[in-house]
Input
Amino acid sequence: MPFRPDAAKEEISVDIHVGDVLTMKKNHPCGANSFLVLRVGMDFKIKCENCGREVMLPRGKVEKNIKKIVRNETIGG
Ligand SMILES: [Zn+2]
Output
């Protein structure tokens, strides 16, 4: 897929980092809707917090399905 710097600027860019927990609009088949972010980029790798299954999703699809981003700011330092 060629990179087009002039395209996709209209999209609302969501600030997501590794370690964030995403609350999604759509539930995982196991019933949970919170996912830990393992990798960000063109594709996102997220892990279901309930059953531990890892899923790869294109960025656009993840951003569309986010209901809430939970950042663990208290951990580390
Ligand atoms: Zn699950």
Q: What stands out?
A: Strands lie at 21-24, 34-39, 43-48, 54-58, 66-70.
